[in-house]
Each structure stands twice: as structure tokens, then as C-alpha cells.
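Trying the structure run again after the queue cleared.
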Amino acid sequence: MTTIELLPVIVTDVPDDEDQAPLLVDPAAARVVRAADVATGDTVLATFPDWPKYQGLPHACYLNDQYQAQPKPYDPTCGCGSCENFADHGGPVVNLGDDNPWDVCDPYAADDLVLIVPAAA
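Done. C-alpha cells:
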């Protein structure tokens, strides 16, 4: 796993909307990694979409429900409704799994950033 070093992001342990953002039990254990580096059992907490920006810095967009990653091969034809959104993506895509509250795959561009608590933490 590659931890992203020197990336200026803002991560809080008390999000503004607790219903939309899981509180971190141990904020020091959280890591920002590339989606391609998420391992089985890592807890996926947030993504860093291109928007919204906070004073020019990437902003954590917490998931409605955290989940344990179960990475598996990306299949743009799986029919889950999420994978087809990346069918035209020009680079590598990873699927962090379907072991989440939405019962759909969770595809990301391989270089997208996600906030996780590593399984080994």
C-alpha cells in the first residue's frame, strides 16, 4: 500500500453532518491512498472528488456508510449501475468491491484518492 505523503488535505474527526459522514474512531489511523492501493478489509471512509474544493485543497467527501473493501476485477458490463459510468474512462479502473450498503460495485479510476483505515491498523 502506498500512503500519499505531503498531500494537503483536510480530514476531520467531527464532520459537519454526522448522518452523511462516519466519525473516525481513531483519526490517526486514517490514510489517503490511491484507489489501486486499497486492500481487502480496508475501511473505505471518503473520496476526494475534483469538487468541491476548500481554499484550493482537495476536500474529503465522506460516504453515507463506511464499508470494508473487497477489491475485485473491474467489469464495465456487470450491470450493477455503477461500473458502466467508467466504461469510457481512458485509464485503469479498480473496483473496491460490492460489500457495501448499496449492493453495487464501487469503481474508481486507479489514481483516484480515497480515505481509508487500513485493515492492519
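Strands lie at 31-34, 43-47, 61-68, 93-95, 107-109, 113-117. Worth checking whether this holds up in the mutant runs.
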